[in-house]
UniProtKB/TrEMBL annotation:
It is a multi-pass membrane protein. It comes from the Bacteria. This is histidine kinase. Keywords: ATP-binding, Coiled coil, Kinase, Membrane, Nucleotide-binding, Phosphoprotein, Transferase, Transmembrane, Transmembrane helix, Two-component regulatory system. Residues 222-266 form the PAS domain. PANTHER family: SENSOR HISTIDINE KINASE GLRK, TWO-COMPONENT HISTIDINE KINASE.
Length: 572
């Protein structure tokens, strides 16, 4: 009996020795780092908690955090603490691990902590409380609780954020608010007698604010209007700084100079896209540019014309106006420059000058001849001699007088058209008969063959005299500009309530570049005015007459084959 008990004791002793060796091996492995674990002493004795590899990485990470961090088991014993938490409670790190977390909480916060951690086992929880530190600071902290899985089961991870600075700031803010309240009370007491004055001043201020707001609204509205005006202006407008750099360019300026708001203003002085020229065609230097003149002299520049020669385009002309912009002290800060395309204006002016020259010549020639005829007739009458040449001189005088009257009538018609005073006396008449009659009294001799084709009974509602004038102009035009064409064909057609008349010659034709300008005022097919007589007003007047009747007028021409002038009129 004693022998069996002895054997049993030896067996138990051997088992304990084996367990001790395993424990020693485990502790040695923990110390050497082969196993990452925690050894914790609690009411049940020493316990070892091994960490998963992910938890080990997590522990390394939170050791570097500025917040405090602890890991608790389900008995709220601290399994792990980072250095920052130990600093918060002013206790060495080795004396923290293995202690109950409540040990580092003031008594009045322990109940709150138990409530938080009881919820945290089921969900992530946050809450504020204070720590109990050895130095008596008892810092306020924000606890963020989250469960963490260890090999031995669930544990609780707590991140502690020090709220001391925040609380101090809040306390300071409360103190400042209290001080502010005290100051407000004092101010109210001091300003009690000034209440009426304050109200009056407040009312004045409100009125001022309303006026200022209205002024600002008006200013914004004016700015919007100005922007819309600038963006829709037919003139180019740019604003530059004192160095000549572009700060604004409206759409027309961008179009004229092939630039945009992001490009430098220096480009308008000439780029690889175009060249600035004087109106004479000579190169325009930088210093002679109107903008440069304005900036250098600080004086306005008005209607300074220059030419722009695009590399792959037709030369055009612009008129430049420039004015300096100054600040409140009168210092030059930049300038505003406007550009207007005056190419058409120059062409019209040139045509007008040519017209005046031609008109003077056209009027002078018949008047001179008329004067000579009258002088001869006067001498014959004074000599009381009869002569068989008197009828010849009378006829010549009548022809020259008719030519003067015809030219004068054209000038009067142009004046009436310009003033919108060309009257129309509409009646219903046979268009075919009108054309036939026109050909009869236009034809001076039998050298021209007029062929009238098309419908015979076309009637229209129009001004008979004005339509007759148009047909005469077109027929005379064919005779004048196509003298070698002995056949002139007139065609009358009607379709969908519109009558069409065409006058066709078989002369030299008209070059394509001249066709768009034939009905312009003062335009002459031969600008020199040497080859053909006339004022260059016939087609312009004809076009105005037809358009005032609600019709259209045009020309089709092929060089070397002849031209066809045509017009349409509504029949009703």
């Amino acid at each position: 009996m004693e022998n069996s008990s002895h054997i049993k004791l030896l067996a138990e002793l051997n088992e304990l020795r084996i367990q001790l060796e395993e424990s020693n091996d485990t502790i040695e492995a923990i110390r050497s780092g082969e196993i990452d674990a925690l050894v914790v002493k609690d009411k049940e004795g020493h316990q070892i908690f091994t960490l998963k590899s992910a938890d080990h990485t997590y522990r390394i990470f939170i050791e570097q955090m500025t917040e405090g961090a602890v890991t608790l088991n389900q008995s709220n014993t601290i399994l792990y603490s980072n250095s920052q938490f130990a600093k918060m409670i002013d206790i060495p790190l080795e004396k923290v691990i293995g202690q109950p977390f409540e040990k580092f909480l003031p008594q009045q916060y322990q109940g709150s902590f138990k409530f938080l951690i009881s919820k945290a086992w089921n969900e992530n929880v946050k809450g504020e409380l204070k720590l109990k530190s050895r130095n008596g600071l008892n810092p306020p902290v924000l606890l963020s609780l989250k469960t963490l899985e260890l090999d031995e089961g669930s544990s609780m991870s707590i991140i502690l954020t020090d709220l001391s600075s925040q609380k101090e700031t809040q306390q300071l803010l409360r103190q400042k608010n209290l001080q502010l309240e005290d100051a407000q009370k004092i101010a109210q007491e001091l300003n009690a007698n000034l209440e009426n004055t304050v109200k009056e001043r407040t009312k004045e201020l409100e009125i001022t604010i309303v006026k200022k707001t209205r002024a600002e609204d008006d200013l914004r509205a004016n700015q919007d209007r100005l922007t819309r005006i600038l963006e829709t202006m037919a003139e180019g407008v740019v604003i530059v700084d004192v160095s000549g750099n572009l700060t604004y360019a409206n759409p027309m300026a961008q179009k004229i100079f092939f630039i945009n708001n992001q490009e430098s203003l220096s480009s308008i002085y000439g780029t690889d896209k175009w060249q600035n020229l004087k109106v004479s065609g000579e190169p325009l230097t930088h210093k002679d540019h109107p903008l440069a003149l304005m900036l250098s002299t600080e004086k306005e520049v008005y209607d300074h014309e220059i030419a722009i020669q695009p590399i792959n385009g037709e030369r055009f002309y612009i008129s430049v106006n420039a004015a300096p912009i100054r600040d409140q002290n009168g210092t030059l800060t930049g300038g505003v420059v406007t550009f207007m395309d005056v190419t058409n204006r120059r062409k019209i002016s040139q045509q007008k000058d040519e017209f005046i020259s031609v008109a003077s010549h056209e009027l002078k020639t018949p008047l001179t001849s008329l004067k000579a005829s009258m002088q001869i007739l006067t001498r014959l009458m004074q000599s009381n001699k009869t002569s068989d040449k008197i009828p010849e001189f009378v006829e010549k005088a009548n022809k020259n007088l008719s030519k003067v009257l015809y030219l004068t009538e054209d000038l009067m018609n142009v004046s009436k058209i310009q003033h919108g005073q060309l009257p129309l006396n509409k009646t219903r008449f046979n268009l075919t008969k009108l054309i036939s009659d026109c050909c009869s009294h236009v034809k001076a001799d039998d050298s021209y063959n007029f062929i009238i084709e098309g419908e015979k009974g076309v009637e229209i509602l129009a001004d008979f005299q004005r339509i007759d004038q148009v047909v005469v102009n077109l027929v005379n035009n064919a005779i004048k500009y196509a003298p070698e064409s002995k056949t002139i064909r007139l065609d009358i057609s009607r379709q969908d309530g519109v009558a069409k008349v065409s006058v066709q010659d078989f002369g030299i034709g008209i070059s394509p570049e001249k066709l768009p300008h034939l009905f312009d005022r003062y335009y002459r097919v031969d600008p020199s005015g040497i080859q053909f007589s006339g004022l260059g007003l016939g087609l312009y007047i004809s076009a105005e007459i037809i358009e005032r009747h609600g019709g259209k007028i045009g020309v089709d021409s092929v060089e070397g084959e002849g031209s066809t002038f045509w017009f349409t009129l509504p029949t009703e």
